[in-house]
């Protein structure tokens, strides 16, 4: 059992049977991880059971129990750190009697061989079957959930980069490679989003309502970002196919005519039948095309190349504009996250004020009785 990793990174308030604080113990085994919820009284009882099982005084220090103001944020944070230190000291102690005792294994939901007791684990085997990542981690774990969300954001960032490379590259092979990599990132991110959604349902009983709403909003933003990239990839694919077909048709028409001839230029700039066909296909009425200083010195192939350059410049401008919009969107997301955090802090402050008011009322009543 020396390869068991233990840590306490968060706590929450459980409403039943009456409001109380529970600490989230992250138990990490070589092939999997899970979370156990324990009250402070459970830690006190663990210390007593360990002393009874080992028949010796407990050499590890547990935090003392406070009679007053034991629900303030400062007290809970300090107690979390002290309980985390207590677990790690027992687990890493040179005296193996403590961590090999039955009370310790029962407290962490471990069997004698390092397996898992289903009665002590939050997610049972039937539920965990759909929450295991290919890496062996359980996405129902609050810490693993956040790590998976970060990996999903990284995949979406890479997908956006590949889509940008696909738009700017001039090589057909590079364009196809970028498209394939973007599709791969989008597929992997879609799989992770499904797993995150399942894990979010499991987290409903492990984290507070504020934290659950925050994670739900983060997952919703990630899902919207992926849907937007999917639409962008489909649009780029359609535009690329259409542009390839148009350029190929134009090149074929130019190859069939005599290069550098006045007839070709007349067909491009002065032939009314050509203008009529263009107008009909675009469903717009165009005036006569006039030569410019930029086009006058170009042959037919040069005109096609100029058209492609202009289209690439427009695409690059759109990409830069898209980047600006993405930065603005991320700024809005950051502001929203900050507002959510401030709202949760205000809610916690309100709860502390209410607790203080009730304590002051009780103290006032006791003082009146004394008087």
CATH topology of the domain at 5-122: PX Domain
Number of E strands: 3
Helix content: 55-70%
Query: What overall form do the CA principal axes indicate?
Result: elongated
| Overall CATH class of the domain at 5-122 | Alpha Beta
Averaging pLDDT over every residue, what do you get? 76
Question: What's the alpha carbon Rg, rounded to whole Å?
Answer: 33 Å
The neighbouring-strand order within the major sheet is 1-2-3
Task: Please state the second-level CATH architecture of the domain at 5-122.
Answer: 2-Layer Sandwich
SSE string, helices as H and strands as E? EEEHHHHHHHHHHH
Helical stretch tally: 11
pLDDT < 50 runs, ≥5 residues: 112-129, 257-261, 268-286
Largest sheet: 3 strands, antiparallel
Classify the secondary structure makeup into a structural class. mainly alpha
| Spatial gap, N to C terminus | 59 Å
Strand content: 5-15%
CATH homologous superfamily caption of the domain at 5-122: Phox-like domain
Can you describe this structure in just a few lines?
By secondary structure, this protein is mainly alpha-helical.
